[in-house]
Write a structure and sequence with these properties.
eight-stranded parallel beta sheet; alpha/beta; 27% strand; Metal-dep_hydrolase_composite; 27% helix; N-acetylglucosamine-6-phosphate deacetylase activity; Urease, subunit C, domain 1; globular; TIM Barrel; single chain; 2 domains; metal ion binding; hydrolase; eight-stranded mixed beta sheet; Amidohydro-rel
């Protein structure tokens, strides 16, 4: 049943996706909270013919879910949002904030850092306020500011070592110095919500930026005389690109283009989820802005800009395989291994290897989620005949 600790469990008979490839009729042994080389003879065996077993998903860009906001919710609400995404296969999650007053964001960092320290979150991502008013998306223009390294340092200090990523419009005054500061502290500098030229983007990459925040969205489109940031971000192997595969943010041909140019090792599938993920249509707040969600698409009430997504990573996985025709092994890299590497937690999660946390997802033959285990405990236990 859900919540039962798997002291000695073997998942057998499924297609198991390992770093070396897919094993037909594979086995995954779990001892207590970790994946094991083997299991005792009396271990519980769960037969999963016709299923897939893949690593737990790792979401490095997520603003909330289950009706809860990571930017403004109480601790209990944030925990509820985390639980919602776990029920959709995300066993490792970074909490993303949206643009707000500096003092508010610093206080928020203090709250979220406690959840990182107790193991509920994998870190904090600051998306805004250091972004371009020309490409603000669902961020309040009145609260935007240039990326002053001193203010970036203020948020780093408030996060007490738990900040994992900042999204910056690196062409703004202070942008390049802020990238260098983040790189020195081992924090991801992500280029996003940017109006940068191709040349300005190359400069930011050379300064230490390593991620493109939701590539294609909130940046100038690719043009033949002004290639802009997209060309620079696609061509450079130092950059991993985030992609929101919800069918709204990106056309399938654009997803294929990104995979073709970056390769599966430099793509991270994310949700960019807001409160409505796993919850439903209705009216919500994203920071100080009102959002209307209709048929699963979130847009600002004023202006109509897309306001994050209602995506969960199990849906992103299923779309990638069944609609976009991305090989399963490549999707696993994009949704688990790559973000785990970027976040510096790939020694514990991101692949099914002995010694790592027993974080895994069971999918049926149609790639519909059938089970979720986190640290050896079933969040959703797969039904067997």
């Amino acid at each position: 049943m859900a919540g039962r600790a798997a002291d000695s469990t073997v998942l057998a008979g499924a297609r198991v996706v390992l770093p070396t490839g897919t094993v037909e009729d594979g086995r995954v042994a779990v001892e207590s909270t970790r994946i094991s080389d083997s299991a005792p003879e009396d271990a519980r065996v769960i037969d999963l013919p016709g299923h897939w077993v893949v690593p737990g998903f790792v979401d490095m860009h997520n603003h909330g879910g289950g009706g809860a906001s990571f930017t403004s919710g109480t601790v209990d609400e944030v925990l509820h949002g985390i639980r919602t995404h776990r029920e959709h296969g995300t066993t490792t999650l970074v909490a993303s904030t949206v643009t707000g007053e500096m003092d508010f964001l610093a206080r928020r960092a203090g709250i979220l850092s406690e959840l990182v320290e107790q193991g509920d979150l994998a870190g904090i991502h600051f998306e805004g306020p250091f972004i371009s008013p020309c490409r603000k998306g669902a961020h309040s223009e009145d609260l935007l500011r240039d990326p002053d390294p001193a203010e970036v340092r203020k948020l780093l200090d408030a996060a007490r070592g738990t900040a994992r990523m900042f999204t910056l419009a690196t062409e703004l005054p202070g942008g390049i110095d802020s990238v260098r500061l983040l790189a020195e502290h081992g924090v991801i500098a992500a280029i996003g919500h940017t109006d940068a030229t191709y040349e300005q983007t190359v400069e930011a990459i050379d300064a230490g930026a390593t991620v493109a925040t939701h590539l294609f969205n909130a940046m100038p489109p690719l043009a033949h005389r002004e290639p802009g940031p997209i060309a620079a971000l696609l061509e450079d192997d130092r950059i991993t690109v985030e992609l929101i595969n919800d069918g709204t943010h990106l056309h399938p041909a654009i997803l294929e283009l990104a995979y073709h140019h970056k390769g599966a090792g430099r793509v991270a599938l994310i949700t960019d989820a807001m409160d409505a993920a796993g919850f439903g249509d209705g009216l919500y707040d994203l920071g100080p802005l009102a959002v209307s969600v209709t048929d699963g698409v979130a847009r600002l009430v004023e202006g109509g800009s897309i306001a994050g997504s209602t995506l969960t990573l199990d849906t992103a996985f299923r779309r990638a395989v069944t609609i976009d025709r991305i090989p399963v092994e490549d999707v696993v890299r994009s949704i688990s291994a790559n973000p785990a590497r970027l976040l510096g937690v790939d020694d514990r999660v991101g692949s099914l290897e002995p010694g790592k946390d027993a974080d895994l997802v069971v999918l049926d033959e149609d790639f519909v989620l059938a089970g979720v285990m986190r640290k050896g405990e079933w969040i959703i236990e797969p039904k067997t005949a």
